[in-house]
């Protein structure tokens, strides 16, 4: 096997691994549905090309893994759904919004959120 082929295989394999760890994105109907699920929900309102949003993705994936079935962590792309984003009063990207199991907003943060600070805010809100 030549080096270019090996490089292509490595790229394909690494893309598959990162896709498995990716936090899913919702459309407006999915956002409405997930907030009625009876679970804690963390939504990052951002965009796929926003640099701080991209930097948040590994942290969001770690949070999803950490909380497992106790919480749902999802993306909502402001650039694709601006009207719905305005309904949630999103003014900047990224904005992380935490909803309790009843679908009520309990905390909000704008910008990059360090994992430790994020976990502390979630614990203060009641998600442990």
Structure, explained:
By secondary structure, this protein is of the alpha/beta class. The chain has a single domain, classed as Glutaredoxin. The chain is 46% helix and 21% strand. The protein contains five helices and five strands; from the N terminus they run αβαβαβαββα. A five-stranded mixed β-sheet has the order 1-3-2-4-5. The N terminus is likely disordered.
Task: Note the topology.
Layout: H1 3-20, E1 25-26, H2 28-34, E2 40-46, H3 51-67, E3 71-77, H4 82-87, E4 95-99, E5 105-110, H5 115-125
List keywords for this structure.
disordered N terminus, globular, 5-stranded mixed β-sheet, 128 residues, 5 strands, alpha/beta, Glutaredoxin
Mean pLDDT: 87
Domains (count): 1
CATH superfamily: Glutaredoxin
Quickly count the helices.
5
Main sheet specs: 5 strands, mixed
User: Tally of extended strands?
Assistant: 5
- How far apart are the first and last residues' alpha carbons, in Å? 49 Å
- N-to-C SSE series? HEHEHEHEEH
CATH fold type:
Glutaredoxin
Specify Rg, calculated over alpha carbons.
16 Å
Overall spatial form: globular
């Amino acid at each position: 096997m030549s080096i270019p082929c090996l490089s292509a295989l490595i790229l394909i394999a690494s893309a598959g691994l990162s896709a498995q760890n990716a936090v899913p994105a919702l459309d407006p109907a999915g956002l409405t549905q997930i907030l009625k699920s009876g679970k804690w929900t963390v939504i990052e309102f951002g965009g796929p090309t926003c640099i701080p949003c991209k930097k948040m993705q590994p942290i969001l994936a770690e949070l999803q893994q950490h909380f497992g079935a106790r919480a749902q962590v999802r993306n909502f792309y402001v650039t694709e759904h601006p009207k719905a984003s305005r309904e949630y009063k999103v003014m900047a990207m990224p904005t992380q919004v935490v909803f309790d199991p009843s679908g009520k907003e309990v905390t909000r943060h704008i910008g990059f959120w360090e994992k430790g600070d994020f976990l502390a805010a979630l614990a203060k809100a009641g998600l442990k």
